[in-house]
Specification:
The strands form 3 sheets. This protein has a 7-stranded antiparallel β-sheet, with no helix packed on it. A 4-stranded antiparallel β-sheet has the order 1-2-3-4. Helix content is 16%, strand content 37%. The chain has 3 domains: 2-69, no CATH class; 77-154, no CATH class; 155-205, no CATH class. It has helices at 2-21, 23-30, 200-204, and strands spanning 32-37, 44-50, 53-58, 67-69, 76-81, 88-94, 97-102, 111-119, 128-133, 139-143, 152-153, 156-158, 170-173, 181-183, 190-191.
């Protein structure tokens, strides 16, 4: 049986040596440039394969050894059309939250903020509220015209007027029961549901 093994080994030893010699070249061929930048050095992050599947790594390796898990998420197509190439825009999730990207990437690298479709409540501002993510990964909401407008909220804005003070928006937050509750940032009125409301300021009086 030793002779059989040696014959088998000799038959594919050349291919094995060739593959080992081309290992670095093959690894580079399997890499895919992502739409994220390295937060440590600013270089492109690339998708690599490891023993536990795909992950993101800095293209500046070995000078920069930054790596992070790859969030496998399906792209959600929207009704919006790319204003640069007319391809459909899709919703993606990056380091700073959801954003719109052209579906023809990498041929077209057009990106836009993820807009909630709600007008910014600041006086005189014509911006839209967009979803963002802080450096620590927490979702918050800001104005699309930042830094001109510095509106920001940790709680999700709701496109509904306050029935007490006529404020333009309500804000959604978690409650002790686990169900989301809404409140007004101007007068403090809390809305426990679409039908009922609880005015804490009235109770305090």
């Amino acid at each position: 049986w030793v002779e059989i093994v040696l014959q088998f080994y000799d038959s594919w030893k050349g291919d094995l040596d060739s593959a080992n010699n081309r290992r670095k070249e093959l690894k580079r061929a399997l890499q895919e440039v992502s739409d994220e930048d390295c937060e440590e050095c600013g270089a492109d992050m690339v998708v690599k394969w490891g023993r536990n599947g795909r992950f993101l790594a800095c293209s500046g390796y070995p000078k920069c050894k930054n790596t992070k898990p790859l969030e496998e998420q399906s792209e959600v197509e929207t009704d919006e059309v790319c204003d640069q190439c007319s391809a459909p825009m899709v919703v993606k999730t990056g380091r700073y939250g959801r954003f719109l990207a052209c579906s023809s990437y990498p041929d077209c690298k057009n990106v836009k903020p993820y807009v909630l479709g709600i007008q910014c409540p600041e006086d005189g501002c014509e911006g839209q509220i967009v979803e963002k993510r802080s450096r620590k990964g927490k979702v918050f909401f800001g104005c699309s015209t930042y830094p001109q407008c510095k509106f920001a909220s940790w709680d999700r804005p709701i496109d509904r007027k306050c029935t007490h003070c006529d404020a333009a928006l309500l804000y959604e937050k978690g409650s002790r029961s686990g169900a989301p509750a809404m409140y007004c940032r101007i007068c403090g009125t809390e809305y426990e549901s679409e039908e009922g409301e609880k005015d804490k300021s009235a109770q305090a009086a």
